[in-house]
Amino acid sequence: MGSTSSTLSKIPNAEELSQETGFTSAHLARLFERFEALDKDKKGYLSPQDFEAIKELALNPICDRIIGAFFSSGQEMLDFSSFVRILAHFRPIDNNRPKEPNSPDPINSRINKLKFAFQLYDQDKDGKISRNELLQVLRAMLEKQVTEEQLESIADRTIQEADLDRDDAISFEEFRKSLEKVNIDHKMSIRFLR
Amino acid sequence: PGRQSGSLRAPNPGKQTLLWLVEVVKPFSLLLFLFLVFHFSQRFTTVVPESCVLIILGLVLGGIVLIANKKQLYQLDPGLFFLFLLPTIVGDAGYFMPARFCLYGAKMAGVIDDNVEAGLMEFLLFGALISAVDPVAVLAVFEEVHVNEMLFIIVFGESLLNDAVTVVLYKVYISFVEVGPGNVLTADYFKGVASFLIVSIGGTLVGLIFAVILAFITRFTKKVRIIEPLFVFLLVYLAYLTAELFSLSAILSMTFCGIGCNKYVEANISQKSRTTVKYTMKTLASIAETIIFIFLGISAVDKSKWAWDTGLVSCTLIFIFVFRAMGVVGQTWILNKFRLIPLEKIDQVVMSYGGLRGAVAFALVVLLDGEQVKAKDYFVATTIVVVFFTVMFQGLTIKPLVKWLKVPRSTNRKPTINEEIHERAFDHILAAVEDIAGLSGYHHWRDKWEQFDKNYLSKLLMRKSVYCKSELWEAYQKINIRDAISVIDQGGNILTSARLSLPSMASRTSFPEVTNVTNYLRENGSGVCLDLQVIDTNPGAKVEEETETHHFLAGNLYKPRRRYQSPYSRHFMTLGDQERQDREVFQRNMRNRLESFKSTHYKRHKKDRSQKKARSHHRLSHLRLLLTPRVKPTKSQLKGELSEPEKDEDVGITFVARKAAETPKERPKSVPAALEVCQSPSVAPPSPTCGEKNLPWKEGIGALPPCVSVEATKIIPIDLQQAWNQSISSLESLASPPVPQEPQHPRVSALHRLSVPPRPPVPPPPSRAKFQFPAWKDEEEEGTLSQQHREMQPLMPSLRPPPPPPPPSSAQSSGKRRNPCVYLRSLVTTPPSGSMPHSRGPTQL
């Protein structure tokens, strides 16, 4: 495909990126187009404002969290490779891909998917979801449907349920355990178009 | 089975008697077998699917009738089948289909594996009807196999769609056959395809329209709860009939009606109606299924109806198998290109193996016109064989096959609140990521749909009150109730120790250091709580022994009175239009739990009563206070309150509730004297037996710790509130005599008594009065009372924002404090209702 290869040529170190993230070059080309479309001022990177400009995203109750997750390193710029790396979390886990024993966990592994979700809750990055952090997310997701008390009792209950070491917070380990029976691959994957 | 009239004209008297016997025996045997099958289904149907048993039963029955009469009397009547039996089953399945997955089912559209056998139109016709996977058979077998949800939906969805296909093809071919093969033009084939589209899409549309109508109607049935289930049944059935009327796919119509309306109707109708709908549908469906399979068996015996042709039969069987497999493999291959999670080989095997033919095919083949289709008899025979083969052989073997292939089974596990929350978050995340990545995938569209649903559909179709409710909150409550019930079930056995562990929690055997409920409650304040965890103390051996004695006494000594009471309260409940039974079971269990809790908790021997009195009474009064739901008493309730007899438990104990407003004169005369003596301290000095009531575990009856916070009551819908009141009332006044003239909220009355101000002035407006302090009238107990008063004060502010006595200390903050135990809150906010399974029912004596 002519367009694919021409786009690919614009992507810096496309090869490695493809290796690392598991995206095919067609995927990468498509994502690069998207990246450029989001990057309105042709800065070469994305800023949080670029994300906020996405109409559909604005409707999402936890959009600020998600945008925050893209800029988790604290800087205001997101270049294409980081963009792709983050999106790679949501690639379905592929079973038939040969596993290289020495390679680290692929980005889209179960644990990494969970980590991504976990950091959305854990805003202060202390490795724990505190009651307050949980409450904030709940509040965002439930909007005005429930009262504050209800929210609190849900949060309490949630923490109580997951909290194994009784420190009133959910650590990542506890988070993982509480979702042990959930098919994360199923729930945290999207089908990237070619 | 209404065609028995001719049966009495049997040739000879002996036969006639036999026949008559069969006539009589039939319904009974049906019943018996229904019973047997369902009763033993646990053990038996692990090996043999129910449908097989039923067909065999049908064969036996048919054989008997045939021997008796030489002629088959009963047959699966297509009219009966299509009008009554099929809809019930499909309706049930459609209504309870997990709507989220219906997308997958729809994706399977058009899995038609026509095994066109010959060029002849008649064979085409036969191929059309025999190739259809039968929803009934699929349901019957797959439900028992418990394959995972997705697989089930794919196969079932396919069978539903096949109905459309079958009906269309059947009609098309019938018309072709009528016209004659030579006269069929190519345009007619296109017409056939077009009509297939019309039939399926039209059926779906009809279903959706009826779904909207139904949801809209139920929005306005608040005043007439009784007819709610009726509406559901009628409209779903109407969807079926309407579609049938326009020769659209009735099954599709019904399924989509069920799927479409489920969400809104469930939200609109009352809990009772929900249960009614659920059980009636399931019952009807299982009856219809049973009848279908039995009739299938019976009809097969009739030799006059069919003619055997080995070649045709074996060819059909082979073709069915091969084509099905080919169809499945080919189509999943296409489908997998679009699916996130591809269908595995194993799934494909199950899918092709699960192609069961059933009564639909049979009914259609019987419907064939023998004049037009000369080979009808052969077709009938082949159909029967195919149906039997697929249902019996495949049905029998599919279970081992599924096990052997290790197909992921469906789990009946209910999601925990964590999963509930996180999955919701995942959905949002995925939708957002799709937006960011510029894809409009499944989540994108689902989000769009949810927006639309929230903004328009729900507003239109749901009641205001329900519309505002949050699903997550509901889920939370459900989980809580489930926990509470299982806790009660676990601990319902009185003699077990007070150990608890909640199933949904990670193993946690005891709750740390909460030994004093009072302190605990005070600490947590209105955060509400009483948590079953609190009960989870570790009693010493001696205490435990003591507890057992107490329970033994408690359980036995007061039986008569309880028994006397329960019918009364049941009646009482019916007045209030509330579900009584479950609540009663719950209360009793709860009471037992709490009794045991208390007796272990206070660690006192029953003999040192006086000591006990002084101490336990404080705690109890706290509990009691917390217990009181903040409900604004109405005028009538106010009155009722006055007439309510005293609680029996506080004879020797200064109890808050007793202090105020003793109105012995108003006590109903109907109360048996003996009871009155026991229960009303103001009327008579406590009789010797009354002393027993002072035992702490006796008081426990009244002082159920779950405390309702203001907010908890706020959020309960009115009817639930009422229910709560009543349940609490019976909890509290368990041993109190019946009060006929006070039908509602006795609990409120107790509450209100608390609120009667000590000083003469007129009772303050209810809202203000709610948590005022009770009047302390009892001079002799003045000392303890004031102490009690003091002790209670810290609690008050958190209970009610403007406290009559200013809060002494830090209690204000308690409301917001983290409260690890919220279980009982759920009990409080949603009284267990009819849908809850209760394994243990002390009430059902």
TrEMBL record, chain A:
Residues 26-61, 109-144, 150-185 form the EF-hand domain. It is found in: Cell membrane; Cytoplasm; Nucleus. Pfam families: EF-hand_5 (PF13202), EF-hand_7 (PF13499). It comes from the Eukaryota. GO terms for biological process: protein transport. Signal peptide: none annotated. Keywords: Calcium, Cell membrane, Cytoplasm, Lipoprotein, Membrane, Metal-binding, Myristate, Nucleus, Phosphoprotein, Protein transport, Repeat, Transport. InterPro entries: Calcineurin_B_homologous (IPR051875), EF-hand-dom_pair (IPR011992), EF_Hand_1_Ca_BS (IPR018247), EF_hand_dom (IPR002048). GO terms for molecular function: calcium ion binding. Its main location: membrane. The keyword Transport applies. One of its GO terms (cellular component) is plasma membrane. Belongs to the calcineurin regulatory subunit family. CHP subfamily. This is Calcineurin-like EF-hand protein 2. It comes from Astyanax mexicanus (Blind cave fish).
Automatic annotation (TrEMBL), chain B:
Residues 757-767, 799-809 have a biased composition (Pro residues). PANTHER family: SODIUM/HYDROGEN EXCHANGER, SODIUM_HYDROGEN EXCHANGER 5. Its main location: membrane. One of its GO terms (molecular function) is sodium:proton antiporter activity. Keywords: Antiport, Cell membrane, Endosome, Ion transport, Membrane, Sodium, Sodium transport, Transmembrane, Transmembrane helix, Transport. Belongs to the monovalent cation:proton antiporter 1 (CPA1) transporter (TC 2.A.36) family. One of its GO terms (cellular component) is recycling endosome membrane. Residues 116-404 form the Cation/H+ exchanger transmembrane domain. The chain crosses the membrane at residues 18-41, 47-68, 80-98, 118-142, 151-173, 193-217, 277-300, 306-329, 350-368, 380-402. It is found in: Cell membrane; Recycling endosome membrane. InterPro entries: Cation/H_exchanger_CPA1 (IPR018422), Cation/H_exchanger_TM (IPR006153), Na/H_exchanger_3/5 (IPR018410), NaH_exchanger (IPR004709). It is a multi-pass membrane protein. Residues 600-621, 733-845 are annotated as: Disordered. GO terms for biological process: regulation of intracellular pH; sodium ion import across plasma membrane. This is Sodium/hydrogen exchanger. The keyword Transmembrane applies.
